Amino acid sequence: MTPAEMETRIVRYGDLMPCKTAFIDAHTPGSDQKENFTIIGGGVSESADQHVHIKDTPGFNIGAAGQPPRCRNSLHTHSTAEVFFVLSGTWRFFWGRWGDAGEVTLEQGDIFNIPTGIFRGFENIGTDYGMIMAILGGDDAGGGVLWAPQVIQDAADHGLVLAETGKLYDTKQGQVLPEGLKPMPLMAEDILAQMPEPSTLDVVPHYVARYWDMVALADKQPAKVIGDQAMLQDRPGFDVDFLTRGSIPADAYAYDGHEVLMPVRGHWRLNYDGGSSVLNAGDTCAVPPGVIRSLTPAMTGHASLYRVRSNDDPAGPTQPH
């Protein structure tokens, strides 16, 4: 693989292209300043304006959300896995039918494997613009997003209507639902009543891993964060490892599946047959199967990254403990 070919597999943080109309709450006060990024795969955007950086899906999707302080993402639920780690800022994640069943605050590098089947939302509670990176289970991550009824109702009050096809129509721009197309129906009350309402104590010990705990565990070998016999509950269809300077493999290696490298801190040099590339915090690199590669920190100082790998697990739903 030539350096030019590998560069097409790297999405640089500075090249990320945001979409500000990705979701139904794009006009709702308090949520109208958020930016959505689709890095690998189709993602979950409901807008035709969403730019996709790498369209091939390796069995999972990679995306990101960027938000200024006090901007929030509204309550929604997924039928597939949704894993977030904080790249920058301080974030509050909350969940439940009304967002009051439980919550957790995450700092840079912390990771959250959110159980499927529960409503969840998040907001930037820091003082600066923040970014969280997302790993979404399955090839078609857009097929399983459902919004809490109040989100759909609030959006309609501010000009956005979600069609039953999952496409957004902006009445402020004169758009109307095509003839014969109905709005997305609200979730029925009997279904809402059956959705889990796990507490903070039900969720945090089993689904959240803290950055500095992982740094300690990755002193001699990669820390297994998600996967078989890993730190966090469930196997959502992909593996996640955490690496630091002390845990990088000593020798070059190949992997027969897809591998995505996502630096959190520092600078990393990816060596491969044909060349090398430097990866920085916020970059996303999709290494194809079979490429012989090695990783080394490119500079002195603290360095860490998440490594996401495809596997043979079914991308089935996680459930709260």
Number of domains: 2
Q: How does the overall form come out from the CA principal axes?
A: globular
Strand content: 35-45%
User: Structural class of the secondary structure composition?
Assistant: mainly beta
Detail the topology: elements first, then pairings:
Blueprint: H1 3-7, E1 10-11, E2 35-40, E3 52-54, E4 60-67, E5 72-78, E6 82-88, E7 91-95, E8 102-106, E9 111-114, E10 120-124, E11 130-137, E12 145-147, H2 149-157, E13 160-162, E14 168-170, H3 189-194, H4 200-207, E15 208-209, H5 211-217, E16 223-226, E17 238-244, E18 259-265, E19 267-272, E20 275-280, E21 284-287, E22 293-297, E23 304-310
Parallel strand pairs: 2-3
Antiparallel strand pairs: 1-21, 2-4, 4-11, 5-10, 5-12, 6-9, 6-11, 7-8, 7-10, 9-15, 13-14, 16-17, 17-23, 18-21, 18-23, 19-20, 19-22
Walkthrough of the structure:
By secondary structure, the protein is mostly beta strands. The chain folds into 2 domains: 13-208, Jelly Rolls, CATH 2.60.120.10; 211-310, Jelly Rolls (Sandwich), CATH 2.60.120. The chain is 11% helix and 36% strand. The chain contains 5 helices and 23 strands. It has helices at residues 3-7, 149-157, 189-194, 200-207, 211-217, and strands spanning 10-11, 35-40, 52-54, 60-67, 72-78, 82-88, 91-95, 102-106, 111-114, 120-124, 130-137, 145-147, 160-162, 168-170, 208-209, 223-226, 238-244, 259-265, 267-272, 275-280, 284-287, 293-297, 304-310. A 7-stranded mixed sheet has the order 3-2-4-11-6-9-15. A 6-stranded antiparallel sheet has the order 1-21-18-23-17-16, covered by helices on one side. A hairpin with a 5-residue loop joins strand 13 and strand 14. The radius of gyration is 20 Å and the shape is globular. It starts with a helix and ends in an 11-residue tail after the last strand.
